[in-house]
From TrEMBL:
It is found in: Cytoplasm. This is Leucine--tRNA ligase. Residues 220-402 form the Leucyl-tRNA synthetase editing domain. A motif ('HIGH' region) lies at residues 41-51. Signal peptide: none annotated. It comes from Sphingomonas donggukensis.
């Protein structure tokens, strides 16, 4: 028997879809619009399995929505700016642009090879001036609206390479290339006022019904709205210090006050060399929250004391501490070691009292043991007038007392900071600003956009190539014509990805997007991507969309109506006896192929280059065909869970594609009359079930239903019902395995493409299961079951039960004493 030749079918149908522009989205279509989007890839060089899984899921939904009468927008592009291109330039001497466009070309070929239903006419790369020029225009719009400003802010400074480092280039407080201890430095940088939208971004989460709760929670925590109390402690030198707390309830547990190294009180003491040294030491280490969190807690006792607001007899020592940030709250805190981990670490180090004031029920004595702070709910203890209250009550009581007595006020604070978008790098969107000594900060006039990156740059020395370029930054001031300098910072690449989905929806030459056209498509109906973007990318895109709404450019509040975060593709890890990671292809039968040494099999983990457990999709597609790879990606694991890659799995997928092909091509020769209601019912249940599963993105369930249907059809006797089901099969599998589906659609003599065909109609009457299983009991014990028509009459059920051979054996000719019938459920015979 002949086989489905995946390789020629893939090539053939991919060419047909291309030629006919089958998946081009029409703005003017009368059909309902559906926007399906997967997070666009960074062009690192090659597609990985994570991409394949992500894009296959989106593809199934996009193809399914087309078949159900939607005009689908399913675009693809490239998140093409960023550090790796500059690293390649530094390491291999290749220009970032050349490297990026090479990668785009090969990855595009790989995506095409998988037969994704993408509208390639809308392809974009964020490193293209035709994209970033419009981004510059939007930046200027936001600037004009007061949503962009410039201020001094800390960066990671590598003192050996003399360059600013991105957070990810700081590893354990050291520069990734030089190994030098990173310092914090102040630079003038550009910020977007995301904090203006903090309330909206928080409240908007409530409208996102089709987002995972965990992602909404992560966004909520990141925005971090907290209610607190701001108040002043009187100091022993006659001055005062204002602190901010979210736990005013714990005030009687305070054992110290701490201020940031940049705090005026610390600065005021810096004439003391010991203080100056300590302040300098606080500046070491990276600027990221994670770095600060993990640093050892250090303090300097100023000798000052602070007076407790409720009890003048209590004097708290005042420290300068490295874990207090000047940028948050008031830059000063009171520390409650028993109920805050940082404070506890600090108190243990400096032998300060640790006093319990919140009890979780058991322990109530003031002495708090251990090194783990208690941050949970509970009842106030050792706290005078607060004793016995719960935390919320105590908070309210303290805030009210502070306000009534006039020494403090309740406040709302946000964890969210404004978005620093300046990067001192080459491969990014140039910030369209000119600095003039006479006129100050001057926006580049819009008719001079795009500000294009210079091509002739060098990467042989550290630092920003734009800054040291001999001519690029020297320009005439647009206002006064005098000598001026271009801004040499470029925009954070998260800006690029904050609006690409709008540009996909509408991409005129002369403006970033056409409002009316973009609004026809937006919001994105279903967005699919990795959970690693659950916070920043999604928050920035939500902010950007709201900012555009605010300035009247786009009337969309939330950019992504539906969000799905898929699981990872995983694989076993391997090490040789020397502990060196081995790639799967270096291992066979528990030994290293090259040396015959035994292999240690490690955990199943996310495929990653560092552990060498990646499997390159390309050779697999070439061997098994696109459909088998797609099918494997959808089978077995629920899409939100991890998917363990396995050779057996891909072979199973390949066999299934072959089975479908054999089933349909063999049926072509047989014609049979006759009914088979079981098959007809199964078909309709499957049509309806797949539709439901695909809409719920439960692809593994849809796959399971297709397995069941195909197995049943393989077994069934020829009948008209079976022939009908087989003829329907190409449409049912088309979203998942579109190449074999097209091949079969054509083989069955259909005109046009299965990709353009309508999803099969369901007869709702056939979905109702009209038989039920009824239990037959004798004296309460189950003896038999009956399959009968739903709603069968009581006497019919009684008769059927009494006719059961099992029942007759027990009754042994005697008449039953009593028969109880519960229709559709149970017949109980009392003997
Ligand atoms: C006393 C206290 C007792 C606190 C307790 C916490 C637990 P969130 O919730 O993230 O807003 N804090 C305030 N300003 C700070 C700064 N500039 N640098 C470092 N820490 C600062 O955190 C608010 C809490 O973080 C505040 O409440 C304060 O410590 C600390 F059992 O005050 B708390
Ligand atoms: Zn000027």
């Amino acid at each position: 028997m002949s086989r489905f030749n995946a390789l020629s079918a893939d090539a053939r149908w991919q060419a047909v879809w291309d030629e006919r522009a089958t998946f081009a989205a029409r703005d003017d279509s009368p059909r309902p619009k559906s926007y399906v989007l997967e997070m666009f890839p960074y062009p690192s060089g090659k597609i990985h399995m994570g991409h394949v899984r992500n894009y296959t899921m989106g593809d199934v939904l996009a193809r399914f929505r087309r078949m159900t009468g939607h005009e689908v927008l399913h675009p693809m592009g490239w998140d093409a700016f960023g550090m790796p291109a500059e690293n390649a330039a530094m390491e291999k001497g290749v220009h970032p642009g050349a490297w990026t466009y090479d990668n785009i070309a090969s990855m595009k070929a790989q995506l095409k090879r998988l037969g994704f239903a993408l509208d390639w006419s809308r392809e974009l790369a964020t490193c293209d001036p035709a994209y970033y020029g419009h981004e510059q225009a939007l930046f200027l719009d936001l600037l004009a609206a007061g949503l962009v400003y410039r201020k001094e802010s800390s960066v990671n400074w590598d003192p050996v390479d003399m360059t600013v480092l991105a957070n990810e280039q700081v590893i354990d407080g050291k520069g990734w290339r030089s190994g030098a201890t990173v310092e914090r430095r102040k630079l003038n940088q550009w910020f977007l006022k995301i904090t203006d939208f903090a309330d909206e971004l928080l409240d908007g989460l409530d409208t996102l019904e089709h987002w995972p709760d965990k992602v909404k929670l992560m966004q909520e925590n990141w925005i971090g709205k907290s209610q607190g109390l701001q108040f002043r402690f009187a100091l022993s030198d006659g001055g005062s210090v204002e602190v901010f707390t979210t736990r005013p309830d714990t005030i009687f547990g305070a054992s110290f006050v701490a201020v940031a190294a940049d705090h005026p009180i610390a600065q005021g003491l810096a004439s003391d060399p010991a203080v100056a040294d300590f302040i300098a030491a606080c500046k070491a280490g990276g600027t990221s929250a994670a770095e600060i969190e993990t640093q050892e807690k250090l303090g300097y006792d100023t000798g000052l004391t602070a007076q407790h607001p409720f009890d003048p007899a209590i004097q708290l020592p005042v420290y300068i501490a490295n874990f207090v940030l000047m940028e948050y709250g008031t830059g000063a805190v009171f520390g409650v070691p028993a109920h805050d981990q940082r404070d506890l670490d600090f108190a243990r180090k400096y032998s300060l009292p640790v006093r319990r004031v919140v009890s979780d029920g058991d322990a109530t004595d003031p002495l708090f043991a251990g090194d783990e702070a208690y941050t949970g709910p509970g009842t106030l203890v050792n706290s005078h007038f607060l004793d016995g209250m719960d935390v919320a009550d105590a908070k309210r009581t303290v805030i009210t007392r502070a306000e009534d007595d006039g020494w403090g006020r309740g406040t709302t604070v946000w964890r969210l900071r404004d978005w620093g978008v300046s990067r001192q790098r080459y491969w990014g969107t140039p910030i369209p600003i000119i600095h003039c000594d006479a006129c100050g900060v001057v926006p580049v006039p819009k008719d001079q956009l795009p500000v294009v990156l210079p091509e002739d740059v060098s990467f042989d020395v550290p630092g920003n190539p734009l800054d040291r370029h001999p001519t690029w930054k020297h320009v005439a001031c647009p206002t006064c014509g005098g000598d001026a300098r271009r801004e040499t910072d470029t925009l954070d690449t998260f800006v690029n990805s904050s609006w690409y989905f709008i540009r996909f929806a509408s991409q005129p030459d002369d403006q970033p997007f056409d409002k009316a056209v973009a609004e026809q498509w937006l919001p994105v109906g279903q967005y699919i991507g990795g959970v690693e973007h659950a916070i920043l990318h999604l928050l920035y895109a939500r902010f950007w969309t709201r900012a555009l709404k605010h300035i009247g450019k786009l009337d969309v509040a939330e950019p992504f109506a539906g969000l799905f975060t898929q699981g990872m593709v995983t694989h076993e890890t391997y090490k040789d006896p020397a502990g060196i990671w081995l790639a799967p292809e270096q291992v066979e039968g528990g030994t290293v192929i090259a040396t015959g040494e035994p292999v240690t099999v490690g955990r199943v983990e996310k495929m990653s280059k560092s552990k060498k457990n990646t499997v390159d999709p390309s050779p697999i597609v070439d061997r098994y065909g696109a459909d088998a790879v797609r099918w494997f990606m959808l089978s077995d694991s629920p899409p939100e869970r991890d998917l363990p890659w396995s050779e057996a799995g891909i072979e199973g997928a390949w066999r299934f594609v072959q089975r479908v092909w054999r089933l349909v091509t063999a049926e072509g020769a047989t014609t049979a009359a006759g009914d088979d209601t079981a098959i007809t019912r199964l078909l309709h249940r499957t049509i309806a079930g797949i539709a439901e599963d695909v809409e719920a993105l439960a692809f593994n369930k849809a796959v399971a239903k297709l397995y069941t249907l195909v197995a049943a059809l393989e077994k069934a006797q020829p009948s008209a019902a079976r022939a009908d089901a087989i003829a329907t099969l190409p449409r049912l599998v088309a979203p998942m395995i579109p190449h074999v589906a097209e091949e079969l659609w054509e083989a069955l003599g259909n005109l046009g493409l299965v990709a353009d065909a309508a999803w099969p109609e369901v007869d709702p009457a056939l979905l109702v299961d009209d038989s039920v299983t009824v239990a037959v009991q004798v004296n309460g014990k189950l003896r038999d079951t009956l399959t009968v028509a739903k709603g069968s009459a009581k006497d019919a059920l009684e008769a059927a039960a009494l006719a059961s051979p099992h029942v007759q054996r027990i009754l042994d000719g005697a008449a039953p004493k009593k028969v109880i019938v519960v229709p559709d459920r149970l017949v109980n015979i009392v003997a």
